[in-house]
Amino acid sequence: MGLAVIAMVAVLSSCGKKPQVEIDATNAAIEAAKAAEANVYLPAEFAAVQDSMNAAMAAIEAKEGKLFKGMAAEKEQLAAVIALANQVAANVAAKKEEVMKEAETLLNDIKAVLAENSKLVPKLPKGKEGAAVIEQIKADLSNVDAAVAEAQGSYDNGAFMDALNKIKAAKEKADGLNAEIKEALTKARIKF
Amino acid sequence: MGKPWWHILIISAIAVFITLMVFLLFYPVPPPPAAEMKDAREAISRARKNKADIYSGELFSEAVNSYDSAMVNWRRENERFIYKRNYSKVIALAEISLRKALQASESSLNNTANLRVNLKQQLKNINDLMAEINKIFPTYPLTPEVRNKISLGKMLLRESETAFNDGQYFLAEKKISESKALLESSFEYANSHLRSYFKSYPQWKIWIDSTIAMSKENQDYSIIVDKFSHKFFVYLDGSKITEFTAELGKNWVGDKRRRGDKATPEGMYKITKKMENDSTTYYKALMLDYPNEEDTVKFRVEIENGTLSPKTTIGDKIEIHGNGGRGADWTEGCIALKDREMDSIFKYVREGTPVTIVGSMYSLKYVLNR
User: Fold this and answer.
1) Buried-most residue among A70, A134, B52, B150 (CB within 10 A)?
2) Is B135 on the interface with A (CB under 8 A)?
3) Is A101 a residue whose pLDDT tops 70?
């Protein structure tokens, strides 16, 4: 009797085993996408990969609960998750490159504006050094310089998204200052 | 010819095995909780799309944790003998996960909407404060620390607007709070400074009324300089006939106390000399009788009280002169006008024309509300 039961269980449970190799490979692909900062640069796409993995794991458990456990479909599902994770990882590289280029362009732009501002400030009318307007402009310039230095630090550390966000705010401020200085020079009838 | 006993035994065993197989095949196997888990998973995914992980973090975490616990229990049950599996706990956890995910989703949408409205209002308030600062203090000689605070506050305000427009409401909230703290403290400081300055308004009002009355009585020209609004008013027969923008000393707030303080004096003065050509470096100039008797008395009192060092001297050579129109306060204490305005003034005034310099023609309440 015992023999019969053992034989039956063996028959029922050996139809399909949990595809552990495929699961491990999928987890590795997801980890690789995460290591490539997919969660930072493509958060929605990365979340979709995780959702797909959760669905695949649930499908595997559902199959585990059945008498006959053919895992072919689940293996295919895992293979699709791997493909998706690899695709996202590849897209991250492209997105990162895009963000890096944008940050680089903006950094160069803002440096050009700051250089122009530095050239224009000494042209402001003599005797204005103590004037409130000039003092405010100088304070603003110093804060923009600090913000650019911070953004440059993020860029140098490879945190391009963070650098881009910081530069965008600083660029707006630098452009505003540039317009303010030019307005003051125009008002004082000074060519620039 | 009976069969051997072991034949009977084998046949019986096969019969028992077949019966058992048939029984087990038809015995109801507990169905896996796939549907419940799918519902929970999809609800979590929707909640994440609604940014519940950010704006309803606690509920979202509870939903995810319940789902993970359900998966663990599901795996554990699957390890048991198929007919002994019980998925009720898995289903219960999946249902909790679903409920929490739905709540997180809804709460996130509500929180986001409330936050958006709230932040929009806060941004408006800070922009209003910034406009107030720009209106009242653009030429006010604030300290470098206050200027720096205003500058940082402005920058953070722009950053918070960018974060708000990108839908990063928590980041926007953080930056708004930092910006608000900087701008409010700067405004408070400058405002209290201003209030203290305007304590002299009753005295200024007496000087203004007296100057206008003099102009009316003498049917002559009088000049009133309003330092706060940087306005230079010309009166004839008690009526204002024209006004110009005046540029003042770098530290124009407050009365002049000593030589070199770069302050523009406040008081009732008279033109003592008209200068042009080689007698002035500022196109045309009108010398005032600063220091007058009142200024001299005030200076002596300050020396006696020790509020001024005995080594300090009282200033002089306060003029109304040309070379103005620079858009800033740049003089050592004089009043600068544009050259063409000096041409006009030169036609109106003579030696003895009254020139009254006040902090403001109007009360602080009026200045702040206009």
Assistant:
1) B52
2) no
3) yes
Q: Three-class SS of residue B221?
A: strand
B234 in a structural domain: yes
Flag whether B310 is in a domain: yes
User: pLDDT tens digits for B214-225?
Assistant: 999 999 999 999
Overall number of domains in chain B: 3
Chain A nearest-CA distance from B331, in A, is 7
Give the CA distances from residue B4 to residues A72, A97, A139, B14, in Å, rounded to whole numbers and listed in that order: 48, 84, 110, 16
- Across the interface, do A169 and B159 touch by the CB < 8 Å criterion? yes
pTM over 0.80: no
Interface of B with A in 3-22 (CB under 8 A): 13, 16-17, 20-21
Convert the pLDDT of each residue in B50-69 to its tens digit: 999 999 999 999 999 999 99
Query: Do B43 and B105 form a contact (C-beta atoms < 8 A)?
Result: yes
Q: Any chain A CB within 8 A of the CB of B366?
A: no
Is B250 within a domain?
Answer: yes
Same domain, B66 and B205: no
- Same domain as B333, residue B211: yes
Q: pLDDT value at position B241? A: 94
**Residues spanned by the domain of B78:** 5-110
Q: Please indicate, yes or no, whether residues B245 and B331 belong to a single structural domain of this protein.
A: yes
d(CA A85, CA A42): 11
Please state the ipTM of this predicted complex: 0.73
Partner A contacted by B144 (CB < 8 A) = yes
Q: Is residue B170 part of a domain?
A: yes
**Boundary of a domain, candidates B110, B143, B167:** B110
